TrEMBL record:
Biological source species: Treponema ruminis
Species classification: Bacteria, Pseudomonadati, Spirochaetota, Spirochaetia, Spirochaetales
Entry keyword set: Membrane, Transmembrane, Transmembrane helix
Name used for this protein in its record: Uncharacterized protein
Residues annotated as transmembrane: 12-33, 59-80, 92-117, 123-148, 160-180, 192-213, 225-240, 246-265
Signal sequence extent: none
Length: 274
């Protein structure tokens, strides 16, 4: 992928993220005006949070998490254009995959605003699969960035990117959705939820270790920083997309912003001297 094509690709998604933000704001206003917005049931993941006083379920925290996420996405796309316009790096290409994964959470937002979570409809199933696609794509994006950052792999970045997207789509398509169990965040839960969460955790751990191993192999301090930064970023993302309490909202926001800054900073520093 040439720099020109890559920058055009990012610009398209910057515009798309801004349109998404406007659409989600319009959806929220419409749902409030028509009183369609429905608070999801109090089913929590994990359930023992209910027994901890400072982790009580709060619907406002859920809605604020969407606001943070929809602000975060276009800001990141802007910084990719602003600071990586002339930098040929595959890590940035795969980072756009993570931002696309964040955009997939809009399906959960619409499900809440339009009260779809209580419909048991095909639209609800589709919304759940869109979210599942995003939550599969997010860890895969960083794993691919860690595994395919070698110079020999950069000629195949488009192929690897397509494989990553296809794998996420196929995974979301084959996993059944449990529309009878809606989480407090408006999430349609998946079948085999425990196994899927273990799979995601393994992807996160493998990503962190892969960056660290790259740092050891290349004697690169920047790659080691990418290891800790990706861990912080993924942790923040995981907390934001699953938060239904102000504690996770604050901690997740801080981790997401700090992790993103450190991740992009060390990529920029690494390739600035290349």
């Amino acid at each position: 992928m040439t720099l020109k094509n890559r920058n055009s690709f990012i610009q398209i998604f910057l515009i798309s993220s801004l349109l998404l933000f406007i659409s989600m704001l319009a959806t929220l206003i419409y749902s409030i005006a028509t009183k369609n917005i429905l608070i999801p049931p109090a089913y929590r993941l994990p359930a023992f949070f209910n027994s901890i006083p400072f982790l009580k379920n709060n619907f406002l925290a859920v809605m604020l998490s969407f606001a943070i996420l929809f602000f975060y996405i276009p800001i990141c796309f802007f910084f990719l254009i602003r600071y990586f316009e002339n930098t040929q790096t595959s890590e940035i290409i795969f980072f756009t995959g993570f931002l696309i994964a964040c955009m997939a959470e809009s399906a959960r937002f619409v499900s809440i605003c339009l009260g779809l979570w209580q419909s048991f409809s095909n639209i609800l199933i589709f919304a759940g699969k869109v979210v599942l696609f995003g939550r599969t794509l997010a860890p895969l994006s960083f794993l691919c960035a860690a595994l395919f950052s070698e110079t020999s792999q950069r000629q195949d970045v488009e192929r690897n990117y397509i494989i990553m997207m296809t794998a996420s789509v196929v995974f979301a398509a084959i996993i059944p959705m449990n529309t009878a169990r809606i989480a407090s965040t408006g999430l349609v839960t998946e079948g085999f939820m425990i196994l899927i969460n273990i799979f995601r955790l393994l992807l996160f751990v493998t990503t962190t270790l892969s960056f660290w191993v790259q740092g050891i192999k290349k004697n690169s301090l920047e790659h080691k920083h990418l290891s800790s930064s990706s861990f912080l970023l993924i942790l923040g993302y995981s907390m934001i997309v699953s938060c239904d309490t102000f504690v996770f909202l604050v901690l997740g926001s801080l981790a997401l912003v700090l992790g993103s800054y450190r991740y992009l900073y060390f990529i920029h520093k690494m390739y600035m001297w290349s």
